[in-house]
Amino acid sequence: MAFLTKRGKYYYVKWNTSEKGKVREVRKSLGTRHKDVAQKMVTELEKLESLGKIDPFIPGFNPKRALTDDKTEKTLQCATVTDALNLFYSAKQHLSPATVDAYKRALDHFVELNRLKMASPKSIRPHHFENVIFKRGITAATRHYYFRHFRSWWKFLKKKKVVEADIFDSLKEDLPRIRENTRPKMISEQELKTLFKTFDSELQRKKALSEFDPERVQHWFKPIVALYFYGGLRKHEAGYSPYLKYSGLKGENLIFEDGELTYIYLPPTKGRKERQIPIIKELRVQLEQYLKLRGKLNSKDFVFVYQGGTSNNKPVRGDRVYREFKRYAKVAGIPTTRSLHGMRHQAVTTWIEKGFHTAEASYMAGHSSQKVTEKYTHLTAKRLKEKMEKL
């Protein structure tokens, strides 16, 4: 039987056996820091061992190579593009559901548009990819989105020797450059206050209407937006999505110390890292006011729920928050480029500007790698340059 162990930052698989009264042990690195990935690898190794396909006690045994070899055997049945897609999706199950869904959306669209469902992967030509990547009416960012996902699938098929053609180097040459567009998405704290004043003004206006129902006021709007802005949460870490297991903030994610709301705790989500985010005063005020109105909250209850109507007490969806944010921003006269994810950018940038180390900001943001966080140091450098030019 295989056991999962950890040494330093990396996970290992360990086997024990007894020969002539002596205990023999073998420990092999799995080459990953992520527990969920390592656990899946151990489960697969146990299956291979039970089938007699591997012997972990033979000299030179490599668990990663054993898993790769086993997957290679399964790649032989790849007669159609559908087979090639299913093979790719199964190999990506260690990634987050959101990442796998992104691959599926892009690749399923590619197959449907080109009607390649039952075609052989070897029959795919550059113009099939061009039909999607360079079709009219899509932005440069969308073209790059399709390019990245298609290239990842094609590299996988080449590695498995399902296809041989080199396609993407020539396609890359024709891709338009993407301009730096993070800054326009970021909302300032002054704009946030304007947004909240607009919400309050709209609520006062509605109260004057004869059909106003106080039981249907959506009090969740201000606290959940404040959570994006001050806590740097992703859209579906605070809001709910039926397609993501980790989505929707729950009572168990709120950490109290001496009766005061102190931290937001999040288990591994998209970035596969758990994290605790200290709650600053401005955010605590919004959350505590909302929790008083919301009422009793159990550990498994969603924090943000709809009030009244057919959706009463159902979790607030991230997409609904986005629509409401855009609606109030338009009324408030806030630039239309602002977004919920821009608030996450703003939070991380603010943390770094206020003196947090990149590693600390990376931990609070839940980035999969510190390299992701390092791009925010470039954003702050731009702001310093802007300030310097104003002197």
From TrEMBL:
PROSITE patterns with a match to the protein in the record: CB (PS51900), TYR_RECOMBINASE (PS51898)
Pfam families listed in its UniProt record: Phage_integrase
The keyword DNA-binding is assigned to this record: yes
GO biological process, one term: DNA recombination
Entry superkingdom: Bacteria
Domain (Core-binding (CB)) ranges: 79-158
InterPro entries: CB, DNA_brk_join_enz, Integrase-like_cat_sf, Integrase_catalytic, Integrase_recombinase_N, Tyrosine_recombinase_XerCD
GO molecular function: DNA binding
Domain Tyr recombinase: 182-389
Keywords per UniProt: Chromosome partition, DNA integration, DNA recombination, DNA-binding
Transmembrane helix keyword on record: no
Name of the protein described by the UniProt record: Site-specific recombinase XerD
Species this protein is from: Rhodohalobacter mucosus
Lineage: Bacteria, Pseudomonadati, Balneolota, Balneolia, Balneolales
